[in-house]
Amino acid sequence: MRPGIQVRTAEPADLDAVVDLCLAARAESAVGAQLCTDDRARLRDQLGALLAVSGGVVLVGTVDGEVAGMLLARLVGPSLFSDVTNLNLEAVYVAPDARRRGLGHQLLSVAAHEADAAGANDVYATPLPGSRGMQRFLARLGFAPAAAHRVVTTSALQRRLAHEQGAAASAPGRGRGPRGLEDLIARRRQARESRAVSAASDQAVASITMQVNRAVQTRRPSSSSTTTW
After folding, report:
1. DSSP letter at 141?
2. For 56-104, what is each residue's pLDDT tens digit?
3. Backbone angles phi, psi at 179, to 5 degrees
4. Are the beta carbons of 5 and 102 closer than 8 angstroms?
5. Is the same domain home to 187 and 215?
6. Smallest Cα–Cα separation from 94: which of 143, 147, 131?
7. Listed residue (79, 71, 58) closest to 13, CA to CA
């Protein structure tokens, strides 16, 4: 660790400084509302809850004794459906005047130690859209894409669901209950039977045509005979 730089677990007395860093990160980000609330009191309560909850990780990085960076994470697992423990990295931020001094690396180094001590298999990070600097920083440290995230507003989802349900209810033969499914199966069976009958009819016609052609060929005079008109 470089001289003058220290990383440690946050204490209750550090919460106001961490709030300041969170608000600075929000102001710096183009999508700051997705990062945290702008209500200081509420944000302080949320950080205090993360600090107190089991598995919560709140780290502060200091430069010459002054808090200049923070890391927020949560150890998740084992859970009802998985025996695996992971570290979910929520936020890493270093104040502009403390950057390029290794503080971000030190914050992640301590977080990695916490993950290893807890038996975490992986460290997940969710950088905000548009945060190219953080994307490059994580990529250099070996973070690779894991999954694609999709997002929709609650109101838009409700409107879409109402539209889809209304369309399903009004469409003929698409009832919501088992009867609708039975009707669909019956229509498909009828279509298959119709195609089978059509194919059999075509085959019968082809067979008759072949027999007629053979009969004509049998009655036709040989090629050596002469026909006079």
Report:
1. T
2. 999 999 999 999 999 999 999 888 888 899 999 999 999 999 999 999 9
3. -60, -40
4. yes
5. yes
6. 131
7. 58
Whether 55 shows a pLDDT value over 70: the answer reads yes
Q: Rounded to an integer, what distance in angstroms lies between the CA atom of residue 24 and that of residue 19?
A: 9
User: What pLDDT, on a 0 to 100 scale, did the predictor assign at position 226?
Assistant: 34
Q: Which of 19, 107, 26, 13 is nearest to 60 (CA)?
A: 107
Q: Check residue 89 and give its pLDDT.
A: 93
Q: 146 and 166 share a domain? A: no
Higher pLDDT, residue 127 or 213: 127
Are 115 and 209 found together in one domain?
no
Residue written as token pair 């026909």: 227
Nearest of 59, 143, 74 to residue 107 by alpha carbon:
59
DSSP characters over 55-103: TEEEEEEEETTEEEEEEEEEEE--BTTB---EEEEEEEEE-GGG-SSSH
Q: Is residue 228 part of a domain?
A: no
Whether 111 contacts 89, CB under 8 Å: yes
